[in-house]
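Quick start: read one record
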Amino acid sequence: MFRRKLSFDYNPAEQRPVIRCSICTGEQAAGFQDLRTDEFREFMLIRSGRDAQEFARACGVERVEKIY
């Protein structure tokens, strides 16, 4: 199976990478939270820990914070 390379553009001065988790369903989505407005822009669904690691690596961070 081929894995696609993640590509996106975000400004670390204005946004931060986060994983939004649903308390009810447990669904997780990776994306970017605006630092001024706290608005969340979804980028991809997280189906496994490997997806979360790949997203963190693509963002250039060791760990991505989870928000609820």
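The first strand starts at residue 15 and ends at 21.
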